[in-house]
Design goal:
Length: 471
Amino acid sequence: MTIAHSEGFTFDSWRGAVRPWLAAGHKAEGLVWQDGSNQIKAASADCEPNCVQPAVGRLRLPRVLMSLLQNLACFRHPSRWEFMYRLAWRVLYENPRLLDDPADPDVANAVTMDRAVRRDLHKMHAFVRFRESAGDDGTVCYFAWFEPQHEILRPGAVFFANRFPNMCWTIATPDGAAAWDTKAIDFFAPRALAERPREDINEHLWRTYYRSICNVARINPSAMQREMPKHYWNNLPEATEIASLLRDGAARFAARQKQGDHENFTAAKSLQRSLAQAQVPAAGIQLCRACDLWKHATQAVEGEGPKSARIMLVGEQPGDEEDLRGRPFIGPAGKVLDEAFQAAGLKRGEIYLTNAVKHFKWEPRGKRRLHKRPGVGEIRACNVWLLNEIEAVKPAVIVALGASALTALLGSAKTVETARAMDLNLPSGVPLVASYHPSSILRADAERSAILREALVGDLRKASSLLAPHG
Ligand code: URA
């Protein structure tokens, strides 16, 4: 009798294959496992070739054992399948509390293997770098090459499907590739390395970003390499910057110490400390930690548009697509806005578009990230960035889309209906036109949506008319 899988086991195929043997109570020692030519076979030592496979009885594996086995299945070692069988057998037939005994050699091994796989998964989440490429039909796709230490592509890919559900991406590894088409993950055999894109148009931006957020004063090379083992550097575009950052950092430190510039040094340190807590515009918006929204967002999304724009339009916060691509109003709400601009005789390219809050606030709903309204605390925390933009652009008129934008600009909560009925100005005197948020147009039923759309177009026209020189 053999249990075979033409392309080696996955956790599920292993489970299906060993199930009858486990249910019938066959000891691990009674099975002979073979691993060759990408095939793993198990043969029963006590059965001759025509031995009948035992009938599947009831087999319930405890949940903790199942999740442990799932991780062990990823551990790169030819005898892991056999080891997993022995562990499962021992829990089922020898000691149901086996996993509570850390002194047991099998349990100790399992813990070490489990830890190694978890660590590798964690590294995959942190170190996969997608590069933009064009799909066959011209759509934007993302490609990442990653070399994990263990066979973690399957569980690792699930994380990325949840994280980037709206992007088409492929993650290729030496063991095979996973491709997500926004609906399902397809796993396939390894491809030639030559096919992977080496660089994309965003690469230099990413390197520049890395240089600007990397705090050289705090780099501890050995701690850094523990967290970011050199093994992964090959596929990290920012790794090309590390050597020079370390050199610069060391030189700057040495010079500072030579001068005995102790005061500056402590000042720099305390600045670094406050950067972590406070809003310090000079540190750059990507370092903002003034509220907790940065923790779950991909990036801060700054405003976009000419610095000479006469109209500034303020929304609420970036949505899912804006968060991923780093630009405001490029998702469904942006489409509504584009149509409204056109109807009002305005061009997107001449307007400065921004948001009251720069990080995407969301909650998970299945595979999707659902927009969550920012709180007043978050709006206030982000106000410094919006004020900076107003200061830099000096618009002649500002349009506030929705209640969050009104709160950010007026400092107090007003409904859109109330604000639309008023003539509003910022304290600096800049006229403020209130209007409906395009997302509320998308959410409304057809009849209300048409009314809100018309109101938005009217409000944009009003903003435009405020620019005209008065006679
Ligand atoms: N909604 C907003 O308020 N802003 C965006 O950038 C996108 C959606």
